[in-house]
Write a structure and sequence with these properties.
Adenine-n6-DNA-methyltransferase TaqI, Chain A, domain 2, 3 domains, elongated, 430 residues, six-stranded mixed β-sheet, single chain, five-stranded mixed β-sheet
């Protein structure tokens, strides 16, 4: 066995057809997707490998084809370069390319937001070259390894695609009242959501009277025709501002990165990235990378543990709860429930569900952001307080289960990576 650059043993060229220009016909149209389409004409009549190089979710996927076909312009078509000098069993190299997919993408792809395999890098990537006799001898073993790896990758992809959709469906059922339908039947005589709003309103009036908060800007009340969908009778539609206090963080000093704010700092200064990363930790913000000193604190505000944080710039509508006292800038909004703390968790679930809609309010600029007014005026279906507690209890339990499944997915990913490394060791070492 010897290592050879792809360009030494294969000719490769870009496919010619854009998927949008495909006209169904009798010839195979090979795309970056796992499923093939058809087209009315063909460009190639040969045995070849087709590798996806410019479709982020499919990078490195390889197809084996033998016959008349046309390929997507998001793929490279590989054919043997010199059958006398370097004879190639393409089915054998189909297994090789399937098994080295992760390593190939890692070492040849470029770009950040949208990755693509670089043609020069691809040509210079080294693969093991065996004599044609060895290729035929090793083919069954490598095929078994490739199939096992592909099965694990499919399992990971299924889990990664299914969990977010399942989570969205469960939260949607919760905020539409479907999740607690049976609970409501057994708990009919409870205070309504309107009574909860009255209680929150009174709490705000006390705070305003004591000059602890300023009077909020008046917002347009919802009418029946404003309601997005039907909710249970003892629920109510309201504006987000009505369910608690929303206050922006503070970072008055300019420039914000002035070292005088941070020298020998010990006071956590939570930023939008810290809030976004809390999702991996059950939405608990336990750490940050920046700390204020007393001078930094003097131009900011220290928020108590368990304060709910909502980002309104960069990572829009990300949420998390402080696990320590901390400051944060005005790109983060605090939500403070004025009655039961479970309201904050309910609001977090609702924001998570409507994140895509919230992001639409952001102007199309490089640094996306929304203002506090947009958050305040969002429509939210509000259940009675006791039902909110039940909904949060159910959703928290569901969240724990999904976190376990995510850990299983991570373990499976590690198995794929381990199998890939094992294969590479077998394939690349004589």
């Amino acid at each position: 066995m010897e290592l050879k650059k792809i360009k030494e043993i294969f000719n490769f060229e870009k496919g010619s057809l854009q998927s949008t220009k495909c006209t169904p016909g009798k010839y195979d149209f090979i795309t970056a997707s796992s499923d093939w389409k058809t087209h009315k004409t063909f460009d190639n009549d040969c045995e070849a490998l087709v590798v996806a190089v410019a479709a982020s979710g499919s990078l490195g996927r390889v197809h084996y084809v033998n016959g008349k076909f046309i390929s997507s312009d998001l793929c490279f078509i590989l054919t043997p370069k010199d059958s006398k000098k370097f004879p190639i069993d393409l089915k054998f190299y189909y297994s090789i390319f399937k098994s080295i997919r992760e390593d190939l993408v890692k070492k040849t792809a470029t770009g950040t937001a949208k990755q693509a395999i670089n043609k020069t890098n691809f040509g210079n990537y080294e693969v093991p070259y065996y004599s044609i006799e060895q290729q035929k001898e090793l083919a069954p073993k490598f095929e078994r390894l490739a199939i096992k790896q592909e099965d694990l990758q499919s399992e990971v992809q299924f889990q990664e695609n299914t969990l977010p959709r399942l989570t969205e469906l469960v939260i949607r059922d919760a905020v539409e009242g479907k999740l607690t339908m049976e609970w409501r039947r057994k708990n009919a005589n409870i205070e309504s959501a309107d009574q909860l709003l009255d209680e929150i309103r009174k709490e705000k009036e006390v705070l305003i009277k004591n000059k602890e908060i300023k009077k909020e800007k008046e917002i347009l009340k919802l009418t029946k025709k404003d309601e997005p969908y039907k909710i249970p009778d003892n629920w109510t539609w309201c504006r987000m501002q009505e369910v608690g206090l929303f206050q922006r963080g503070k970072s008055k000093h300019r420039p914000r990165n002035d070292t005088r704010l941070f020298e020998n700092g010990t006071i956590p200064f939570v930023q939008t990235g810290d809030v976004a990363r809390s999702k991996a930790n059950g939405y608990r913000i336990e750490s940050c990378s920046t700390y204020y000193n007393d001078y930094g604190l003097s131009q900011s505000k220290l928020w108590p543990k368990n304060t709910m944080c909502i980002t309104i710039a960069a990572n829009i509508a990300q949420t998390g709860f402080l696990d320590m006292e901390a400051c944060f800038p005005d790109s983060v909004v605090a939500f403070i429930p004025l009655t039961d703390p479970s309201i904050a968790r309910y609001v977090r679930y609702f924001i998570d569900l409507t994140k895509t809609e919230i992001e639409k309010y952001a102007p199309a600029t490089a640094q996306k952001n929304i203002n506090l007014g947009i958050i305040s005026e969002l429509k939210i279906p509000l259940p009675p307080e006791k039902e909110i507690k039940k909904i949060v209890e159910i959703l928290d339990s569901f969240q724990e289960k999904t976190r376990f499944l995510e850990e299983v997915t991570t373990t499976t990913k590690e198995e794929v990576s381990l199998l890939s490394r094992s294969f590479l060791k077998e394939a690349f070492v004589d």
